Amino acid sequence: MSEEQGTTMSSEPILSVRNLVKRFGGLTAVNDVSLDIYPGEVVGLVGDNGAGKSTLIKCVSGVYHPDGGHIFFEGKEVRFSVPIEAREAGIETIYQDLALAGNLDVSANIFLGREMKNRYLGGAIRTLDEKQMLSESSGILDRLGIHIPQMRKEIEKLSGGQRQAVAIARAIYWNARMMIMDEPTNNLGVPEQRKVMELIKTLKSQGVPVIFISHTLPDVFAATDRIVIMHRGRKVAEMPSSSTNTTEVVEYMVGAREQGVEGAAA
Amino acid sequence: MAEPETQAPATDPRLERRKRIVLGVSRAWAWVFLLSLIVFFTISVYARTDGDVFFLNLRNIQSILNTIVPVLLLGLGQTFVIISGGIDLSVGWVMGLSSVVSAKSTLLLVDAGIGAYPAIFIGFGIALAAASSVGLISGIIIAKLRVPSFIVTLGMAFVARGAALMISNGRTIGGLPQELRELGNESLLYWQHGEGGGPSFLVKPDLAGEALRSMDRLFSWPVVVTAITVAIAVFLLHKTQFGRHTFAIGGNREASVRAGVPADRQTIMIFTLSAFSAGLAGILYTARFTGGSSIAGEPLLLNSIAAVIIGGVSMYGGRGNVMGTVIGALIIAILVTGLIMLQVDPFLQFIIIGVVVIMAVLIDQARDLVAGRAESQ
Question: β-strands A125-128, A117-120: how paired?
């Protein structure tokens, strides 16, 4: 199965992480991890608390600076010094805590840090182009089939699912080439979880690969093509979702098993 | 594709209506309170003087506006700072520093043989630069070294205080050119009473003695400068990216950084702006009283914070507006003027301001509770 995938996937990985290391003082949070992500695939990244998933992801998205190893994105080696550089390269991250400003409305959040502006006096005076930002926001939400009736409301007054949708819409609007989702279904009701899963499928169908980090194994199995398991900073297993099961994944997660050779299914 | 997002389950319409009422009251209460104050003082002043004195006469309006100028200027900078999630305790002494620096520089320049107007305006410039640099330093320490703004601005308040006292030797700096007095006290509009009286725009009527004393000046230059500053602040906070980012870092700094908001730079600019507007208060003080005083702003710090809170700026950051602060400053100024006119114990003002501040926050919290936002703070 994994060989078959290797041939059907386009030959070049969109993201290639090589021997990544990240230390915090004496603790090695990410230890020599390599990982490839191909266009249009959904990869589940799982592991117990403290396994190093979030740290790995934060290295890729420019929040942390790795202490060793290389990251290649779309064939070129990248070193992001700030998260905005990763976003500009096309790596969008949807964090556990959503990274939205709860006191701002939908379009202010979608355009946060990249506001559209009206220019006056040759650009000497620039005001926010609220109208344009609002209409662009409605457009992208429509495209993703998301309906938010109160666009001008502060985002903290919306439901968890609506906020999640805004975060995803923001990423898509900014032309994400790859999407990282950290626990996207946490704190959501069941119908809203389902909606997020649908959004992941939409992204996949549009060729945008997704790295899906979750504790909720049924969601991981439902959404992903491949599962990567981390334990204590190391990648302990990587296998197609269809050729494994919950028991096996949990064994890897708690460190009861380990693949001898990376990439080869057990 | 995904179904339309479902909204919270429909609630009892009576509850909804009560909710709307609470929200409406909480939004407009400051205006209502301001109007009630005006009505109250108008009636009681009228009654007390047997119909002789109208509370909002030109002279009183002028006095209220002059009282507002420094409180409002300190409050404007403070509005940005508090919305961004910080606090600036240095504005009072920065105002004093600015006042003595402008007075001292003007004095030295005049002594060096430079004309009065250039000396005055260069003095203003030096004072604004000195004030702004205090804010710049605070901002850098807060943003880059991650020291809470409460501590940094408390420290910088002492630094500014020491510098101001050293420059002025602890005394008021006088002997300033007459032109400065005019800048601080002449106005946009004059109102001459008695025979042939009436308004006079920009041109000061040629009067002497009693006629000059009874003439009203409306919109003195400091008031005009403050009004323009308010307009700029409204524009900056509510219409520009600078304002949007001020709200964003106050709402969720971490999220803003991840979204690409240059949060450190924003913090530094906000504290510089706050010190600049305190500096503006300082030079206007020097102009109005034709003297530099290091303690000019010391009693105003708490008034300015009170004005901001009464105006509905959340101390948790992320919420507020400039006009709220203007109303907050108006409420305080009218309270002070009204109590003086009623000849009640003027110290009563402090008790009332204190009660109003706490009331403002209580109303705010009631709103948060009703809007179901209390837990998210």
Answer: antiparallel
Q: Please name the helix (run of DSSP H) or strand (run of DSSP E) that holds residue A178, with its range, or none.
A: strand A178-182
Instruction: Check CB contact of B371 with chain A, cutoff 8 Å.
Output: yes
Tell me the domains of chain B and their CATH numbers.
33-371 (1.10.3470)
* Pairwise CB contact (< 8 Å): B261 & A104: no
B375 contacts chain A (CB < 8 A): no
Q: Per-residue confidence at B236, pLDDT binned at 50, 70, 90?
A: very high
Closest-CA distance of chain B to residue A240, Å:
26
pLDDT at A263: 44
CB-based contact, A168 to chain B, within 8 Å: no
Multiple choice CATH, A1-90+177-266, 3.50.4.10, 3.40.50.300, 3.30.479.10, 3.90.226.10: 3.40.50.300
pLDDT band at A216 (very low <50, low <70, confident <90, very high): confident
pTM score, two decimals?
Answer: 0.83
Is the Cβ of B261 closer than 8 Å to some Cβ of chain A? Answer: yes
Q: What are the extents of the domains in chain A?
A: 1-90+177-266, 103-175
> What span, in angstroms and rounded, lies between the C-alpha atoms of B367 and B377?
13
Q: Which residues of A touch B4 (CB under 8 A)?
A: 146-147
Nearest CA in chain A to B317: A103
Say what the alpha-carbon torsion angle B335, B339, B342, B348 is, to the nearest 10 degrees: 140
Which amino acid appears at position A100 of this protein? L
